[in-house]
């Protein structure tokens, strides 16, 4: 009897008939090394550039298929046992452990893929931004030098009255105590041109000056006309350019002889 039982166990997969615990242990021993949770997660945590993503995904899919096949084999073997429920529970538990381990490996692989794609997008954006900046910068424009703190004395520029080069009264009063010190230090160096700004062309500067002068003349003419219109009519000068109105003689009497 014992010999027949041993032979039957060997034919049907002896570890599966020996009990749920031995069936789970035999299935775990038959599982490939890649299905072990710790080793699989450690292998998937490698940098995405050093891992063949397609091969890893194919391995995970093969592991799932193998787990399903082993569960079917265990369920078929458990059907011949008296304690079918315990055997099936052990088979389901083993399948769930393998599938969970494969899912964790797939999540690690997906996270590495997302990081790689994000790094590629950032690199593409950086290269595009640098290309746009190089195209927008004028050719041969020197970089703006940074002035030391002593050149500016830590003071803000003196504001001026709009339209003139005269400093505002309050600013002139505040700058007056420092006038002897500035005179002793000598003239201040002109500020360096800003990077990317092209020096004005002489013709363009002359045209701008002529335009400003024309604007001032128009403003002055409009002001004089407004003042003339505001004066009373009695003080206005007569309009020039019209000749005086001629005197019209009265009509001759009807009884007077003609031709005298």
Automatic annotation (TrEMBL):
Residues 212-231 have a biased composition (Basic and acidic residues). Residues 241-252 have a biased composition (Pro residues). Keywords: Signal. Residues 142-178, 186-211 have a biased composition (Low complexity). Residues 1-23 form the signal peptide. Coiled coil: none annotated. Residues 135-260 are annotated as: Disordered. This is TolA protein. It comes from Piscinibacter sakaiensis (Ideonella sakaiensis).
């Amino acid at each position: 009897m014992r010999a027949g039982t041993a032979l039957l166990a060997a034919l049907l997969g002896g570890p599966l008939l020996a009990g749920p615990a031995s069936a789970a242990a035999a299935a775990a021993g038959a599982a490939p090394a890649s299905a072990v949770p710790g080793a699989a997660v450690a292998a998937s945590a490698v940098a995405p550039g050093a891992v063949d993503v397609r091969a890893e995904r194919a391995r995970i899919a093969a592991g799932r298929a193998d787990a399903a096949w082993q569960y079917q084999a265990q369920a078929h073997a458990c059907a011949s046992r008296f304690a079918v429920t315990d055997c099936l529970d052990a088979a389901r538990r083993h399948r769930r452990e393998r599938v969970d381990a494969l899912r964790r490996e797939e999540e690690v692989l997906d996270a590495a893929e997302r990081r790689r794609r994000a790094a590629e997008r950032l690199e593409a954006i950086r290269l595009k931004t640098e290309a746009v900046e190089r195209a927008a910068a004028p050719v041969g424009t020197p970089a703006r030098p940074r002035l030391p703190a002593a050149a500016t004395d830590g003071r803000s520029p003196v504001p001026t009255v709009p339209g003139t080069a005269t400093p505002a009264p309050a600013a002139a009063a505040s700058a007056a105590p420092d006038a002897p010190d500035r005179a002793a230090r000598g003239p201040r160096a002109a500020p360096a041109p800003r990077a990317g700004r092209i020096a004005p062309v002489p013709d363009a500067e002359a045209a701008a000056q002529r335009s400003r002068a024309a604007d001032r003349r128009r403003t002055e003419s409009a002001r004089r006309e407004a003042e003339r219109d505001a004066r009373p009519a009695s003080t206005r000068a007569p309009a020039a350019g019209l000749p005086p109105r001629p005197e019209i003689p009265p009509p001759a009497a009807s009884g007077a002889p003609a031709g005298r």
